[in-house]
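Table S2 (continued). Query chain:
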Amino acid sequence: MCAIRAAWASAKPRSRGRLRGKIRAMTEDLFRIEIERMHRLRASLAELDAAERAAFVRDLIESGAGSADDWVLCARDAQLPPPGDWSIWLLLAGRGFGKTHALSQCVHTAIRAGVERINYVGPTASDWYDVSLFGPSGIMRTLGHGPVPKWVPSKRRLE
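Corresponding output:
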């Protein structure tokens, strides 16, 4: 990300529009790479038998690189963002599927990849606030080890 900041600082005001498009494309690529990495890890884990999988998770926890409740390890395949080239993900499922948690984790993954603007749509603003933001599986409750977002009530925005 330092290279992106340096390029932005050195760019002339007229060329910043083109640079903004390039930066957006770079962060989207980083997000897609992260999703592909999650799916490759899941495929590799599926090839292991139960004892090898347990040993891998134990080593991951002991090394401090992860925890047993890491989303990539405990999510169902259908709860992970789909691989490929997409810009909108509709997660349409029934009660108890884990939609809120899956989308919260997807938002955290996107933020860690450098995506700066994410549209997260809910039925109403209060539903989004109560369930998707501060609910038990909401964005603010599933932070993990990522950056801590700040809720700005006057703008009704998460920054």
